[in-house]
Design a protein that fits this description.
The chain is α/β, with parallel strands linked by helices. The chain has 8 helices and 12 strands. Helix content is 41%, strand content 21%. It binds calcium ion.
């Protein structure tokens, strides 16, 4: 499945109802989510799971969130942290931010707020910081325009990039040549459907030269990308 890779999150919260609500909502919003219920679990999960961001409850049963961050930082883990807390004291904010947090979300929070804050931090901290589309071992970064097949970076012309982007946004769906012409060549071209065939073949040569093939011809209908 092609999906939008919004980032890997670790949710640390000892209250099961809040933890489950956060995990479900963030997954629904497109994040990959792991969870932990204690500071100890959080340390293990952050060290082994390589999350892009940790949502960290301050009041945990075994050690507080600040201590978790102190330990992570001292073992070289630089992951961004957003604290979740019911405590709203100015001192706590200062402590949390000083020891390497990226901000605070005060309970009770709205899920929209959590998603907005997470997205803002990831935009700032993730390499490329943008949306990635993936299909099998092919990935396309929407903002940086970097396309990779496995570890190999593939150089595409602007038109080839637009074509691949359109295919990947519609992974698993058959797109007719007319649809592709309309979407990819839009306003600057009123031409021949043959140009679609040509560009599909350029694209195949560049990104689809190895098995498994991802770009499929659906005879009589058009093209489709899928793993
Ligand atoms: Ca708690």
């Amino acid at each position: 499945m092609t999906r939008v890779e919004r980032g890997r999150l670790l949710v640390v919260e000892d209250e099961p109802s809040i933890r489950e609500l956060l995990c479900a909502s963030l997954r629904f919003a497109g994040f990959t989510v792991a969870s932990a219920a204690t500071g100890g679990e959080a340390l293990d999960a952050a060290r082994t799971g390589a999350p892009d961001l940790v949502l960290l409850d301050v009041m945990l049963p075994d050690r507080d969130g600040f201590e978790v961050v102190r330990r992570l930082r001292s073992s070289g883990v630089r992951v961004p942290v957003l604290y979740l807390t019911a405590r709203d004291g100015a001192d706590d904010r200062v402590t949390g931010l000083t020891i390497g947090g990226d901000g605070y979300i005060t309970k009770p929070f709205s899920l929209e707020e959590v998603i907005a804050r997470v997205t803002a931090v990831l935009r700032r901290t993730r390499p490329g910081g943008s949306e990635q589309l993936t299909c099998g071992e092919l990935s396309l970064d929407v903002e940086s325009h970097v396309v990779r097949r496995g570890a190999r970076v593939v150089e595409l012309s602007p038109t080839e990039f637009r074509l691949l982007h359109y295919l990947m946004r519609n992974s698993g769906r058959v797109l007719s040549k007319a649809q592709i012409l309309d979407q990819v060549w839009a306003h600057d071209f009123d031409g021949d459907i043959g140009v679609v065939e040509s560009y599909i073949s350029y694209l195949r040569r560049k990104v689809d030269g190895t098995e498994p093939r991802l770009i499929h011809t659906v005879r009589g209908l058009g093209y489709m990308i899928r793993p």
